[in-house]
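Please go through the protein record below and see whether the fold suits the sequence. Record follows.
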Amino acid sequence: MIERIGLSARSARTKRSGHLQGACLIAASALLIVLTTATLAAAALGQPPRPAANSAAPMPDVGNLLREVTARQKSIEQLREDYDYTEVSETREFDGSGRLKETKTEEYQIFFVNGRHIRRLVKRDGKPLDASEEKKEQERVNKEINKASKDSLEGRQNKDAVSLSRIVENSNWSNARRLLYNGRSTLAYDFTSNPHARTQTRAEDVFKDLSGTVWIDEKDRTIVRLAARFAQDFHVGAGLLASVHKGSTLTADQALINHEIWLPVKVQVHIDARIMLFKSVAEDILITTSNYHKFSVNSTQQPGVTVRPPA
């Protein structure tokens, strides 16, 4: 689900709730380390986890396991540079009585430059951008690409590794077990928030207020699913910008693409919050991804890359 996670620039129409979406999605990203924020070839996922055949085997130490996840992520960072895909974000806003008030959709082209997650807006509410909007969006994306091109991929990976290693220190982990998820053995752990943890980054600030469960693919040492909820209110800008209320939830899934790389397939977020001290907001956000394409060495897209069952 991670650090995708300042996850992305929002369009002018969605800036009002961008702080809230960012707070929830960055938590998913911090674990999925991708991250942004993501989500499904829905039929390919969603099977309820059940005990694995080797569920009695000893479980690895969670600290050592997350260090292995970090090491695995470095190879994924390299492979991601060869892929792009489509992301569709649907936001449903509800009024104070719980009735649907508004539904908004945005479609993005997602790709990676030097490990940075780049999102290019292509449609809003099912309609392509007009010429003026498209020009402004391309200018924004060009700036993001230029900025990413100056970054060090190794430096970005190191930042991810530090953040991930501190997750163990900032949370309480328990109930280690093996579960089958979509036909693969996963290592599942429950985690609970530690509000007294000393944090160093925004991602850590968010994560210390979350409780939930994380699933790690046992063979590939990759986080494949996260289900979490805010155990207490989370404040953005000391509560002056926004406050995400206790009970807000998120789930994030990844899938094995082309038998070589794990990429986001689904993120679902429910936000109950207050913006700028006076406006209450209740939103359901569904982010799904599809149309995975792999580039060849001459930058020609290779069509037909899909979510495939493991060999």
Summary: The chain has five helices and 15 strands. Confidence is low (pLDDT under 50) at residues 1-19, 21-47, 297-311. The CA atoms of residues 169 and 223 lie 18 Å apart.
